[in-house]
Amino acid sequence: MAGPKAPRGLVLSAPGSGSGKTLITLALLRALKNQGLDVAGAKSGPDYIDPRFHEAACGHPSYNLDGFAMTLPDLQHWAGIAAGNADLLLVEGAMGLFDGAASGDGSTADIADSLGLPVVLIIDCRGVGQSAAALASGFAGFRSTTRLAGVILNRVSSQRHFDILQSGFDKIGLPVFGHVRSNVKLALPARHLGLVQAGEHATLDSFLNAAAEHVTRHIDLAALVGAAAPLQTDQALPPAIKPLGQSIAIARDEAFAFCYPHQLVGWQKSGASLSFFSPLNDEAPTKDADAVFLPGGYPELHAGHLAHADNFRAGLENAAAANALIYGECGGYMVLGGRLVCDQKHCHKMLGLLPLETSFAERRLHLGYRKLTPLQPAPFTSPLRGHEFHYATTIRTGEADPLFHAEDATGDALGNTGQRRGNVMGSFIHLI
Which residue(s) pair with 40 in the sheet? Predict the structure, then answer.
């Protein structure tokens, strides 16, 4: 009897951010699915939003692959889980191909090398002719371990423009799988943390089909699939972040959407049971939960609604009184605080379970990977890695114990961060 088929994959990357990786990844996932190929997606780096679009495009859950926070066995395991029994795994890169943490670790190229996958470089060709080939040639030769399979040329203005671009690639012998024409209709709405979430896009399915039709006309899908290579996987289950409890109630809706699938799967495989509730629908965590998790998201967009969610508030107060462990990340951390200032005119009362007030009135970007040492004996018992990405500022704190000691990716100390008061705790950092 034949064993399970070996998954194959490609990494889709670019010279830099804003090149159109996400749109082309989504279009390819849907186009290949529409042609009958069983295709799955994954996302390089700390991103909560793009994987939900991947899932909408192809029907398979998309997992994060983080070269900074994950070990080689971690990466190979979760890539294998993402691929499942699909014919092809498309890994969407982050930033530029060789960009990672401030330390230089964790780039998309590192992930491609770890998984044994070739890279397809997506190049924004606005205002560029044969120079696009010179750019690609530099990327192809930059690191011997990273193999460039070919390119997709994005934002091409005309057939004449494409012909000029193609002539440059003919000179260097690098395959061009096709191109994507500039099209104002093929754009996804965005906000301050990235794209508007997939669940908020009312016409997403028709948009994905239109994008798929567009790339099908201009990209050689058969050649692209043929460039894929066997995925290097590791079947051993990597150690997960210790579950917060045996029965974990997790907030899940448009205000609390930032959960990593691998984290939830890891908790389940460690023996925890998970349930979900919606604060925006004024739902409370199940009464038998011994832990409550408030993930990040966009509480600032829904703060007025949350402030009047009386059942949600009572449920969290009851959980705290029952000594359930309550943990909030980023947006969830802000909701655990006393007040959330949304702008110069609007301020809303939050749960008040931590002595914390935060504000978006003057936005300031906090961004980067973090190395964390837990300062409390539970629930986190070993060094952790995570990332910070928010525009909120802390305007007032009260008496509480710090949760972590933090360093940046290079090892520079950032001091203590987060708060803990009894069984209630949180920080701005998303654990990976």
Answer: 89
What does the DSSP assignment read for 16-46?
STTSSHHHHHHHHHHHHHHTT--EEEEEESS
Domain with CATH 3.40.50.300 in the chain: 8-230
Provide CATH code, domain 8-230.
3.40.50.300
List the end-to-end C-alpha distance of the chain, in Å, as a whole number.
39
CATH 3.40.50.880 range(s) for the chain read: 247-431
58 is known as an active-site residue: no
Q: How confident is the model over 131-140, as a mean pLDDT?
A: 98
CA distances from 161 to 18, 167, 181, 221, 325 (A): 20, 10, 10, 21, 59
Pair of tokens at residue 369: 């990977």
For residue 104, how many other CB atoms are within 10 A of its CB?
13
Tokens of 383: 């060094």
The catalytically annotated residue of 58, 259, 330, 342 is 330
The CATH number, out of the four listed (3.90.1150.10, 1.10.3720.10, 3.10.560.10, 3.40.50.880), of the domain defined by the range 247-431? 3.40.50.880
**Complete DSSP assignment for 43-92:** EESS-SSHHHHHHHHHSS--EEE-TTTS-HHHHHHHHHHHHTT-SEEEEE
Grade residue 403 by pLDDT with cuts at 50, 70 and 90.
very high
Give the H or E element holding residue 387. Answer: strand 384-390
CB crowding 315-340: b at 16 or more within 10 Å, else e = bbeebbeeebbbbbbbbbbbbbbbbb
Q: For 300-331, give the DSSP string.
A: GGSHHHHHT-HHHHHHHHHHHHTT-EEEEETH
Binned at pLDDT 50, 70 and 90, residue 182 comes out as confident
| Closest of 40, 30, 45, 116 to residue 81, by C-alpha | 40
- On the question of a cis peptide bond just before residue 51, with omega within 30 degrees of 0, the verdict is no
Q: What is the pLDDT of residues 216-262, one digit of tens each?
A: 999 999 999 999 999 999 888 777 789 999 999 999 999 999 999 99
d(CA 225, CA 7): 12
CB 103 within 8 A of CB 113: no
**DSSP string across 359-380:** E-SS---EEEEEEEEESSSSS-
